[in-house]
Amino acid sequence: MAYILEDEFGDIIQKARSGRGLSVAQVARETQIPRGQLSKMENYTLKPTAERVEKIAAALGLSTPKLLDIAMERWAPTKWDVNFDSAITVIPLSMTLRSGYSVYCYLLTCKRTKASVIVDTGGNPDKVIEAVNEHNLKPSLILITHEHSDHAGGLRKLQVVTQAQVIASAAVALPSEVKECTKLEDSAEIELGDLSIKILHTPGHTRGSCCYYVSKAVFVGDTIFAGSVGRGGFSYQSLLQSVRDKIFTLDDDVHLFPGHGPITTVGQEKAHNPFF
Ligand SMILES: [Fe+2]
After folding, report:
1. Ligand 1 geometric centre to CA of 148 (Å)
2. Gap between the Cα atoms of 196 and 264, Å rounded
3. Crossing angle for the helix pair 24-31 and 35-42, nearest 10 degrees?
4. In angstroms, what is the span from residue 150 Cα to ligand 1's centroid?
5. Residue 15's pLDDT is what?
6. The CATH number of 9-71 is which of 3.20.20.80, 2.60.40.10, 3.40.50.300, 1.10.260.40?
7. Exposure class string for 109-127: b at 16+ Cβ within 10 A, else e
8. Widest CA span of the chain, in angstroms?
C-alpha cells in the first residue's frame, strides 16, 4: 500500500520525545539504542526493528502494537465515503504550501438549506474563493481552528471578499489585521442552516486551538491526525487530554477532518493512534 499517513514513525517518536521533554540522549540511555541511530530513525533514514519499536514505545509512553503497525506500514484509515452523512456535505480543499507540504481546509454545507461555511483558509484565500464560486456557495462563516499561517493565512482577504463572519476560540491569537472576529467559549453553538455547530476547545497544539463538531463530523485542525497528533507547541499533555476528553468521547463513526493527512474516524483513531 502506498503509505498515506501525514506522520511517519520518525515524526511520531520525535513528537512524543519532545512532548515529554526528553533529549535523544535520554531516550538512548533508556532504550539502549545508540543516539545516532535514534536520530536516524527520527529523520526517516533508518527503519526500526520490531524489538526497537517496542523499546521506544515503552520509553515514550506510546502504544506498542499501534506504533508497530505504523512503523511496519500496516495501517491506514479506510477511505472515507463522501456520502457518510445525510445532513452535511464536506468538500476538502488541498493546498500545497511553499515548503512543499500540503494542508487541508474545508467547505461545509447543510444539505437541506444549502447554508455553508469555510473551515480554515489553507493559507490560500484565492483558491478558497475560487472553490466557493465553483460550487456556487455563499458562506456565512469562516471557522478558524488555530492561528498558524497554513490555517489562518490570508484570512483578512477571505473575510473581505466573502463578507463572512470569522469565528475562533476565545483563546486564539489571530493577526491584528483580522477585524471583527467572534471568539467563542467552549461548547458554544453556532447555526448552520438546520444544524448547529459546536465549538470544542482543544488546547495543546496552540493555546487557542479548537475543533468544530457538527452532525457526524469534527474539523480538528492540527489537534489529531490519522495515526498521530499535531505538535504539542502549547502543551503536549494538554493536547493528549483534549483528544481524550473532547474527541474520543464522541461516537466511533464520527468522521475527523484534519488539517493534514487523510480523513479518519473516532473509532479508527481509538483503535490505531499510538498516542492513546
Ligand atoms: Fe498548526
Report:
1. 5
2. 22
3. 120
4. 7
5. 98
6. 1.10.260.40
7. bbeeeebbbbbbbbbbbeb
8. 60
∠103-168-208 over CA atoms, to 5°?
A: 80
Regions of the chain with pLDDT less than 50: 1-2
Determine what percent of the chain falls in helix, strand and coil, rounding each to the nearest 5. 30, 25, 45
Q: Do residues 258 and 221 lie in contact, with contact meaning Cβ atoms separated by under 8 Å? A: yes
146 CA distance to ligand 1 middle (Å): 7
DSSP string, 119-130: E--TT-HHHHHH
CA of 246 to the centre of ligand 1 (A): 18
CATH 3.60.15.10 in the chain, residues?
88-272
Q: What is the residue-wise DSSP string for 4-60?
A: --SS-HHHHHHHHHHHTT--HHHHHHHHT--HHHHHHHHTTSSPPPHHHHHHHHHHH
- Ligand 1 centre from 162 Cα, in Å? 24
- For CATH 1.10.260.40, list the domain ranges present in the chain: 9-71
The arrangement of secondary structure in 88-272, i.e. its CATH architecture, is 4-Layer Sandwich (3.60)
CA of 218 to the centre of ligand 1 (A): 16
- Grid cell for residue 145: 481552528
Over residues 198-257, the pLDDT tens digits come to 999 999 999 999 999 999 999 999 999 999 999 999 999 999 999 999 999 999 999 999
Beta partners for 225? Answer: 228
Cβ(267)–Cβ(252) below 8 Å: yes
Measured in angstroms, how far is the CA atom of residue 34 from the centroid of ligand 1? 32
Percent of the chain with pLDDT over 90: 94
Q: What is the pLDDT of residues 86-101, one digit of tens each?
A: 999 999 999 998 888 8
